[in-house]
Specification:
175 residues; alpha/beta; Rossmann fold; 3-stranded mixed sheet; two-stranded parallel ribbon; 41% helix; globular
Amino acid sequence: QKQRVGIARALAADPEIILMDEPLGAVDQINRGVLQDEIIRIYQTLNKTIVFVTHDIEEAIKLGTKIVVMNQGEIMEMGSRDAIVFHSKSHFADDFIGNKGFLSYLNIVKIEQVVCPFNGNVSEKEITLWVSADDPLIVGIRICLENGVNQIGVRDGAGQVVGAFDLGCLLRLKF
């Protein structure tokens, strides 16, 4: 509750830039996820610049559109979430991000970002496994691997077919 009050207080002044220094550091994991989603909603609604300081790479990947990795006050790396996860230029950033950052990325990026047309070998009518376009990439990967299939169908929130997902679709990401 304290964190929500702090966020509300910061927004009341209607600043151009909002600085949040470890605002969720003392929050349990369940409430932390809820508050992270609320911060994303606030960002999208108000369209304000938010500088969010965290030592949690998963939190940075979930909340950040641009990420700065620092070591003892020195900027080691700065770029988009994709660039930081897949093309870091410093050993420090690589070590900081690690496998945890990559898995977080797969849990955050939505399938809709990599939807492909159905390939020539499989028609939409033959697809028996489906995912939502809003599902994270990791869901599509898991379903393909667990079921030994190369392709699954993708539907939007209204149930309309939007295309297919296969592991080759991941190449559509801007690594």
